[in-house]
Amino acid sequence: MILLADLVDRYRNELEQLHGHELLPSHHHALNAIRRCRNQYSAVMLLECKDCHQNVILPHSCGHRSCPHCQQHESQAWLEGQRRKLLPVRYFLITFTVPAQLRSLFWNHQHKTYDLLLKTAWQTIDSFSRRDRKLKGRTGAHAVLHTHNRRLDYHPHVHLIVPAGVINQQRREWCEQKGNVLFWANNLARVFRARLFEALRLAGLRCEQQLPNE
Is 136 left (phi over 0), alpha (psi -120 to 50) or beta? Predict the structure, then answer.
């Protein structure tokens, strides 16, 4: 089996020659970490059996969040932790994305724009749950940021798993939304769009391309 570390070690120079101008410092950091993962480049640890006193030298894992060798166990542990937080109620999956015209802006200012994207998505859901005439309460959400689609094209978007109800703080009871629709998509889109553009403006981020009206 070919390890990702072997591929990085073998093709990194070619990658940087072809796409070095597109790589961010975070990409170089990931490549450096993965290249040293569990091989001759990594630090080592000495393990000793207390019964037979046999020693074994094992290379360290890199621990980087992008390394598939290191994150399999952590990913499963994270998923199990999220499942334990779920309530015994219905849930809706809501996705917020950005227009193609904003992707270059997001790419060049990832730290700021990802934070704004997540916060704006949550603020939109929170405001709808509080103002909905049937709910009028506080909801919650599990939010996951995706930066690429399945074809690995750059396509930042946020998935939110939202319970089909709220906690009414005045009556201290659970209030559930009936039917197959939590909030209407067009209404969510308009509010999210306005909030996101305003957040980008306040952050001093400006898109040079013509943005869609809807």
Answer: left
